[in-house]
Amino acid sequence: MSSEAFKLTIHMVSSLDGFIAKNDNSISWLDTTDSYEKGVEVTNDVNDAFLKSIDCYIMGSGTYEHAVELSKTNAWAYGDTPTIVISQRNLNVNRSNVQIYSGNLSKLIKEQLEHKYKNVWLVGGAKLVKEFMRLNLVDEIRISILPILLGDGIPFFENLRKEHLLHLQDVTAYKNGMVELLYSIKNK
Fold first, then answer.
1. Looking at the DSSP assignment, which residues form a beta bridge with residue 9?
2. CA-to-CA distance for 130 and 124, rounded, in angstroms?
3. Angle subtended at Cα 176 by Cα 174 and Cα 177, rounded to the nearest 5 degrees
4. What topology does CATH give the domain 7-24+38-185?
5. Which among 52, 96, 115, 120 is least surrounded, fewest beta carbons within 10 Å?
């Protein structure tokens, strides 16, 4: 990346065995009832401040459609933060902060995002993550692992076809049993 201030982070929640959803795309397993006494408690203030540090979200059309469906019973998870949906399809968009993009991903980063934002998060799905990794556009990976083995489902990283060296930057264990790992990508 030309600007050291710009950072693209993949963020994903995963089961311990590496799945981001069940085969039917359900994510009910995200509500963990586990308890880890030594874990960090996240307050709403800390969480809100952290989310405000994200300048822009990128997601695939499947993740977008799933988020829209979830927003029918919960608030829109991405708030008013600009959100770019990568899709070749004509999707129904009814939020002013959401835009559809169907062009070259490298151009999107270099020509539209690098100069405008500092902290961009790629939040799904697995196919889009693979393409961003293939193009060496990712600076770091933040994976939140929940205390569950799904046994089958949609994998987080599927067939990247290339080795990627990582550097562990941080580890946080939470009271709900989730462990968050933050890695920078060394061979970008």
1. 121, 140
2. 10
3. 70
4. Dihydrofolate Reductase, subunit A (3.40.430)
5. 96
Report helix, strand or coil for 129. helix
Strand partners, 120: 8, 56
Q: Is the peptide bond before 125 cis (omega within 30 degrees of 0)?
A: yes
Q: What is the pTM of this model?
A: 0.90
Give just the sign of the alpha carbon dihedral 79, 81, 82, 83.
Answer: negative
Place of tokens 């307050």: 43
Helix H or strand E encompassing 65:
helix 61-70
* Cα 108 to Cα 51, 113, 150, distances in angstroms: 22, 6, 34
Query: In sequence order, which residues have a C-beta less than 8 Å from that of residue 97 and are 6 or more positions away?
Result: 78, 80, 81, 82, 83
60-114 pLDDT tens trace: 999 999 899 989 998 899 999 999 999 999 999 989 999 999 999 999 999 999 9
Pair of tokens at residue 51? 């989310």
Task: Report how far residue 72's alpha carbon sits from residue 30's, in angstroms, rounded to the nearest whole number.
Answer: 18
The answer, yes or no, to whether residue 185 has pLDDT greater than 50, is: yes
Residue-level pLDDT at 171 = 97
